[in-house]
Design brief:
CATH topology: Rossmann fold
Distance between the termini: 34 Å
Order of helices and strands: EHEEEHE
Strand order of the largest sheet: 3-2-1-4-5
Largest sheet: 5 strands, parallel
Structural class: alpha/beta
CATH superfamily: NAD(P)-binding Rossmann-like Domain
Number of strands: 5
CATH class: Alpha Beta
CATH architecture: 3-Layer(aba) Sandwich
Radius of gyration: 15 Å
C-alpha cells in the first residue's frame, strides 16, 4: 500500500512510519522538512512543502491512503482533502487535542468532556 503522511515527524508520525514500514507499506512524507533529514529515514520518500502553499508539489502523484496528523485549522484540512480527493482512495485525519472542549484545565485526558 502507498501511504502518504502529511506532517509525520512529530506527534504520532514516527509511530505511524514505523508501523507502516513494519507492514511493508511504501511511505511518503509531505512536510516542511524541519524535523527529519532525508538521510535519517532513507526508506521513506520525503516531499517538502507547506500544505498551505505547496500542494502542487503533489501533482502527478497518487496514494492508496493519506494520513493527516497535523491539521491545525479546519480550512487547511479541507483544502488538503479537496486537492487530494482524486489522487487517493482514503483520507484519514487524526486530531486528539482539538476534541477537548476546555483545555485550560490541567490534567485533561480521555475522560475529559469533548466537543459534541
Amino acid at each position: 500500500m502507498k501511504i502518504m503522511l502529511i506532517g509525520g515527524t512529530k506527534f504520532l508520525g514516527h509511530h505511524l512510519i514505523d508501523a507502516a514500514l513494519l507492514n511493508n507499506h511504501e511511505v511518503t512524507l509531505f512536510n516542511r522538512g524541519k524535523n527529519y533529514a532525508p538521510e535519517e529515514i532513507p526508506e521513506v520518500e520525503q516531499i517538502h512543502g507547506d500544505r498551505n502553499f505547496d500542494l502542487g508539489n503533489l501533482n502527478g502523484r497518487t496514494f492508496d491512503a493519506v494520513i493527516d496528523t497535523c491539521g491545525y485549522l479546519p480550512q487547511t484540512v479541507k483544502k488538503s482533502a479537496e486537492f487530494l480527493k482524486d489522487k487517493i482512495n482514503q483520507y484519514v485525519f487524526i486530531s486528539s487535542g482539538s476534541v477537548y472542549s476546555d483545555t485550560s484545565k490541567p490534567n485533561y485526558d480521555e475522560t475529559t468532556e469533548t466537543f459534541r
